[in-house]
Specification:
This protein is α+β, with helices and mostly antiparallel strands and 207 residues long. It has five helices and seven strands; from the N terminus they run αβαβαββαβββα. It is globular, with a radius of gyration of 17 Å.
Length: 207
Amino acid sequence: NEVAVSIDSDYVYLSVIPSKAQMLDRSRYLLSDQRDIAETLIQNVDALYVDLMGLATPDNEHLYYITDPHLTTQGAIHAYELLAEAMGYQPVRGYEFEVATDSYIGSNYGKAASWSIAKDTIYLAHNDLLDGMSTCRFETLEISTCFDSVYLRGKEQDLDPYDVFLGGLGPIIVITNEQAKSDEKLVIFKDSYAHVLAPFLAQHFKQ
């Protein structure tokens, strides 16, 4: 909460991206309830809560990878639309999709009891806004690597193809959208679930 209070903005939002385990039947599986976790955060963080728990329902299995815990690109679009609307923005709709790889094996694959599980496909979304963005990854405030995309090409062939989104984990990642209609900036305190999500939100912000 100290971080939320210290942010120099009147608009602070909190959200919890549910894991796909949230879909499972709690009468059959011993699981934590992420709604309870969210409720604790709501009570202790001075921010407007945006509920994304509806993403993790049995009808929405396609919003998550089969072999990995992350949201798919389609799942990220659903999360983005909920967040954008809660933040007062009209979600951008209409994307073209490119297959980055159709042989993605995520971190859950090796934990599965069956080796016959189908591999996943990673899709990259495109439109004029997304394709006009650039990304800088900062190792320190003085050392950075920049590229003219929100996708770091070549990573889809690496050990973790999910790193194609923004280049993977990094302490500070800055997306610049020169086509933004205002100079507003959005700061996201995130984990890797936001890597596929952040570019969609960036459609409304300069950085």
